[in-house]
Amino acid sequence: MGVVTLTIDNKEVKAKEEMTVLEAAQSAGIDIPTLCHHEKLEPYTACRLCMVEVESRGRVKLDTACSSPVKENMVVRTKTEDIIKIRRTLLELMLSHAPDSRELQALVKEYGADKDRFEKEASFCIHCGLCVRYCAEVKKKSAVGFINSGVRREISFVPEIASKECWNCKECFELCPTEALQTAYLFTVAQISDSPSFELESEK
Amino acid sequence: MDNDRIDQIIDKHQGEASSLIQVLLEIQRENSWLPKEILERVSEKLQVSLAQIQHTATFYKAFRLVPKGRHEIHICNGTSCHVRGAQGVIDTVQDLIGIRPGQTDLDSKFTLETCNCLGRCALGPVIEIEGKTHSKMSPAEAKDVIKKYE
Questions:
Q1: Would you call B54 and A198 a contact, using CB atoms and an 8 Å cutoff?
Q2: Alpha-helix residue ranges (DSSP H) falling in B32-128
Q3: What is the chain A residue with the closest CA to B52?
Q4: Which of A30, B28, B75, B148 is 20 to 30 A from A174 (CA-CA)?
Q5: CA atoms within 13 Å, Cβ hemisphere of B65
Q6: For B97, how many CA atoms within 13 A lie in the half-sphere containing its CB?
Q7: CB-based contact A5:A12 (threshold 8 Å)
Q8: Cα angle vertex A44, ends B25, A61, to 5°?
Q9: Average pLDDT for residues A26-53, to the nearest whole number?
Q10: Domain ranges of chain B
Q11: Would you say A20 and A70 are in contact if contact means Cβ atoms under 8 Å apart?
Q12: Residue A124's closest CA among A193, A199, A186?
């Protein structure tokens, strides 16, 4: 297990070879905002909020810290003007989906995002995939998944599995950065009592 | 479609989870749509979660998760048909049979689909019902054509 040395925000950081830039930064007490990251789960790069500037072998590029592995002599900058602008725009886009999310509100203050920049289209889900991945990777139940594609993408519980597994678990609830998940679950519960099929749901 | 036939199709793909899309397509070719029972069987045999199958099956427009009606109506809304007023035809047909594109009515009589170009641009707006092409449709003519189907 080798150790590599890299620079994050002008600070020399020693990290284990298999770490990601995000883990290295966290170990050095440097804060990188994330929404879709969870230490028990594989990197997913959905929220893109952990975007950092990476300089490696003389080339500068933008990459998600949660997925890029550390490299020797790597230079990482986490708070450049460009990065802050990107994060601000990402937040503004997410706010159009989940205007009241507390986790987003906290970041809004930090980055000076304008919550009214984009027209509200409250689906309450920002597609971080935490619930979907937690259920599949940690609980191995896959009771919740994504359905549809593009702008119509949303989370959906599989009623047959959810009715057996979810009531006693609900561990995904607290992971959700917005409150979309609870709503989706309650919606599913309501549906089971009536007609247990996702065919009807996908038809909308 | 019985489980034996599903298993046969899955075996043809060596039960590989990565063949999910091919398996679903092949089942749909024979069964015309993908009922939940079939998806459950596929999930079991391929060791792919139902949530993942649901994701894939709703991601691609090619998969049908609702039964097909007895008559399939395709209304062309390609560029040529569109400028010749296909939208008016679509609206009229929707009102007449009470469903939107992609849906099947409650009596399983019609399935309505729109498509982008049937290759008969000079004859637009075009409606295709069960392989028969009806050309130069006005909303009123479309109504008459559809009323003929039972």
A1: yes
A2: 36-46, 50-59, 79-83, 86-97
A3: A145
A4: A30
A5: 22
A6: 32
A7: yes
A8: 115
A9: 94
A10: 3-59, 71-147
A11: yes
A12: A186
User: Residues A95, A115: contact at Cβ < 8 Å?
Assistant: yes
Question: Residue A139 is which amino acid?
Answer: K
Per residue in B4-57, pLDDT tens? 999 999 999 998 899 999 999 999 999 989 999 999 999 999 999 999 999 999
For residue B101, how many other CB atoms are within 10 A of its CB? 16
Chain A environment of B55 (Cβ under 8 Å): 145-147
Kindly report the nearest CA distance between residue A140 and chain B, in angstroms. Answer: 9
Q: Which residues contact A193 (CB under 8 A, 6 or more apart)?
A: none
Q: How many CB atoms are closer than 10 A to CB B12?
A: 12
Which residues in chain A have their CB less than 8 angstroms from residue B59's CB?
Answer: 147-149
- CATH assignment of B71-147, among 3.40.30.10, 3.90.1150.10, 3.30.2350.10, 3.90.550.10: 3.40.30.10
Nearest-neighbour CA in chain B from A146: distance (Å): 5
pLDDT tens digits, one per residue of A117-139: 999 888 888 999 999 999 999 99
Decide: B59 and A149 in contact? Cβ < 8 Å: yes
Euclidean distance between the first and the last CA atom of chain A, given in angstroms as a whole number? 52
Q: Is B102 on the interface with A (CB under 8 A)?
A: yes
The whole-angstrom separation of Cα B80 and Cα B96 is 24
Tell me the C-alpha distance between A176 and A134, whole Å.
Answer: 11
Q: Are A182 and A176 in contact (CB under 8 A)?
A: yes
Q: Is B142 helix (H, G, I), strand (E, B) or coil?
A: helix
Q: d(Cα B10, Cα B26) in Å, to the nearest integer?
A: 9
Contacts of B46 in chain A (CB under 8 A): none
Contact at CB, A136 and B51, closer than 8 angstroms: yes
Residue A73 above 80 pLDDT? yes
Domains and their CATH numbers in chain A:
3-79 (3.10.20.740), 130-202 (3.30.70)
Q: Order of strands, edge to edge, in the sheet holding B110-115? A: B110-115, B71-76, B127-129, B132-134
Closest C-alpha to B113, from B74, B66, B140:
B74
